[in-house]
Each structure stands twice: as C-alpha cells, then as structure tokens.
TrEMBL record:
InterPro entries: Znf_C2H2_type. The keyword Lyase does not apply. It comes from Pisolithus microcarpus 441. Gene3D superfamilies: Classic Zinc Finger. Residues 61-87 form the C2H2-type domain. One of its GO terms (molecular function) is zinc ion binding. This is C2H2-type domain-containing protein. Signal peptide: none annotated. Keywords: Metal-binding, Zinc, Zinc-finger. It comes from the Eukaryota.
C-alpha cells in the first residue's frame, strides 16, 4: 500500500491498531504479503505486527547481564534462565 508517515509505537498492539486504521484487517490465519512499503515477505496475518516490530522497526530487548540482544521477550527470558540463573 501507500507509504505512511505516522510514527509507530514499538508495541505489537499499537502496530496492529495502526494497521486497522489503514483498513488492513484479515483473519488471523490468512496468508498475506507484508503491507510495509517495499516488503514482499509473506506470513500469516496474526504475525504481521511482530514482523514489522522486529524487521522494519528493528526493536530489540537487551540482556542486562551480558548485553546480548533479542527480538522477542520469550527468547530473552529463556536466555536469562539458561545462562544467568543463580539457582
């Protein structure tokens, strides 16, 4: 679709809301192409907001112990439990 100049907040919920403002609404398990201008990646609609957050916005979470970066909270949590757990 056309490019949009409205800044996005870095949460999947706010990205999903923004996509709905542009009439991007599909069924969760419907396969689509990414609506980001110039992106041709295909995915399920339910994964679009996460894809935009990770690939197009480049948002990451950083481990406070070692500085390693992760795109998903679950991955950071698993890393901390496996690598930095004191128990």
């Amino acid at each position: 679709g056309p490019e949009c100049n409205i800044p996005l907040e870095g949460t999947t919920a706010s990205i999903s809301y923004h996509l709905h403002l542009h009439n991007h609404a599909y069924k969760q398990f419907e396969s689509i192409c990414c609506p980001w201008a110039g992106c041709i990646d295909g995915m399920l609609w339910r994964n679009v907001a996460r894809h935009i957050k990770e690939k197009h916005l480049g948002l990451t979470l950083q481990c406070e112990e070692c500085g390693r970066r992760y795109t998903r909270k679950e991955s950071l949590t698993t890393h901390v439990q496996k690598c930095h757990s004191r128990c």
